[in-house]
Amino acid sequence: MRFGYFDDENREYVITQPDTPLPWLNYLGDEDYFGLISNTAGGYTFYRDARLRRLTRYRYNNVPTDRGGRYLYLRDNQSEQYWSPTWQPTGRQLENYACHVGLGYTKISSEYSDIKAEIRYFIPLGQTLEVWQLHLTNQREKTADISLFSCVEFCLWDALDDATNFQRNLNIGEVEVEDSVIYHKTEYRERRNHFAYFACSEPVDGFDTQRDSFLGAYRGWDKPQSVESGVSSNSIAHGWSPIGSHHVHLVMEPGEVRKVNFLLGYQENPADSKFESEGSQIINKQFVLPTIKRFLKSSEVEAAFAELSTYWNDLLSIYQVKTPDEHTNRMVNIWNAYQCLITFNLSRSASYYESGIGRGMGFRDSNQDLLGFVHMLPGRARQRILDLAATQLESGGAYHQYQPLTKRGNDAVGGNFNDDPLWLVLSVTAYIKETGDFDILEELIPFDNQPGSERPLYEHLQRSIQYTLDRLGPHGLPLIGRADWNDCLNLNTFSSEPGESFQTTTAMDGKTAESVFIAGLFVLAVTELAELADVYGKSVDAGIYRDAAVDMKDTTLQHGWDGDWFLRAYDHYGQKIGSNQNQEGQIFIEPQGMCIMAGIGRNGSHAESALMAVQKRLLTTHGIVLQQPAYSKYYLQLGEISSYPPGYKENAGIFCHTNPWIMIAETIQGNGDQALDYYLRINPSQREAISEIHRCEPYVYAQMIAGRDAPTHGEAKNSWLSGTAAWNYVAITQWILGIRPSYKGLQVEPVIPKSWSDFSVRRKYRGAIYNIEVKRVGPGNQVSIEVDGKAVDGTVVPLPQSDGQQVHVSVAIK
Ligand code: BGC
Ligand code: NOJ
Predict the structure, then answer these.
(1) Atom 5 of ligand 2: nearest residue by CA position
(2) Distance 105 CA to ligand 2 centre (A)
(3) Could you give the residue numbers annotated as active site?
(4) pTM assigned to the model
């Protein structure tokens, strides 16, 4: 069952039924100011940091669900009926409801008793404000007398404090109202130099800034007193709960269209001129008013929207594909790329499943996210790398997370997730292959942001590698530390206290538990570093790293192979995890994917055998589960993984992030059919047809789909912010379609299904445009290439000669 449809031409998903199984989300904003918006206008907005600079309030896990949003109400003053053109919060049934989920905007339209409303929400590029553009049409044959009410509920900035510290917070709310602008200035009188504003393009008939005056006592957002009565009370908030609500009275002739713009924005004033005059407590508005005036004008708003469209078109035009499969085309050309950029911006901080008050930017998460967007925004990828590297420690280890506002490592979580530093090697090498910017290796970056400790980025990478080598366990495999990629495999935690954090509690000295996954990741990273060292003129280092790769490969085959697949780990007692000998958790997906990607056992039949085992034991119709058999009870020595009921999350859920590793492994083994099959099983567009089972948005990946042990097998959870986005993008674009940047040029090695006769890709790379036409002339994967009509040896299309060059590449596969 579907709740809408893909409009590929306009790059939209159009939701046609408002009561989707869960709120379906979109994001607004791209750099400093962000918003989350659902298909019924729920969500919130913040400046840079979803915890510390939250502009509007949102109530997670509320009933009814998805409360707090960007609400408009319409009231027919003749019939006295009122409704929400976005369906919620009144829930009154609408006609012709449609929510257009677009790139950086959401547009919701509907009709109610012949009044048509269309609201487009977006954030102009480079601005710290959002625009709500309302077009209202009177489709009646007689005059309509309409009252329009807006409403947002302000958050008192720190979202955690806002939701907990009521003894203070109910006393401090402050606002100002001037013309049609409502200013939210709680704490501005003391240490804050920032405020929020909510402006309207029309003269207002009234306003409200105190929540209870607007709603009325004991009422909810679904039937505000002011809307019901058609009269605002012009309330000024003193403490309690400041809101912003405008009332605009519109008398509309038959057929008349009215345009009303609202702006919700954030402004910082210089500390020494924050007040209107000396001694006054009134906000100095001289800096903000020009912006407000500008964006209340429809012509300016239209221009800003056009600019936003161009921005997204340019970004997406960097990799465009035409294949025989519509789900592949749609995800690669539009949605997967879009999700990669959103994940890059927000890491795991703010979604409908991440409350914005917990985690900052994850070290491993952000490095992996980079793999999916580096070709689109290389400049910002560079900055991200430097920020991440600056949180690395002298030991080569890393803080697990850092705060976006301060860019400092989080002390509360600390480090010792032993996989973390290795991901930095993968992101840096991906960045250089994309851009050719070897200079980044010379950038002097401190450790733990400490002035005076600066070393070249190249040395940071060396220390990442050394960090693993300094921490080998009894079998010579890497020690796992607090956890590796699987945050829930906590082999040193041994927690029996409810509520204790599995990730930060350490009971054991950590000298025995080893990770085969990190062994694989290490081989992958050290091989990448060897290759980089070679082209960077450090051949001695390259030799050392190649030897280290060989050693770790040998160790892995000797101690990390279980006979038919790769082991997962050794626990604190030296017992195997992910082995045939175990009762539960006999085989895990992560080491199969990672070790094959790293080339471990490539000369033998290991890869083939491991992939067979994955197919036989882990595959379901909805994707590949993380491990089997699921843990049926809590194991003290395993930690959080066994805390989840079977089939959910890391305990045998389909943890989508890991599936592309298997897809990539299949392409390495030359199995294009198998790789695409796995790709399509979790592809959101392919799953659109079963939206009633999948339940999350059909245009983006979710972190997890319930596994076969779960009663709700096939149900997705935790959509949007997940490493799944980047890795699926890498798997399809670089391995199945096979077009990947290298130091010497664009490597073209597709491993596609036998049934595909051809496909084409337009790829911008190092300033040139490569038009790549691939034709299948035989059933295998052997590639021959002609560049501008001339045959080249091997599979690398050389770097371009000049900027803007158009390169024609024809590829035959047989
Ligand atoms: C989740 C993991 C997550 C970890 C750290 C766990 O509860 O299952 O997916 O990485 O928390 O926040
Ligand atoms: C989500 C975390 O953000 C990520 O870092 C981790 O690898 C996965 N969960 C698996 O536990």
Answers:
(1) 365
(2) 28
(3) 487
(4) 0.98
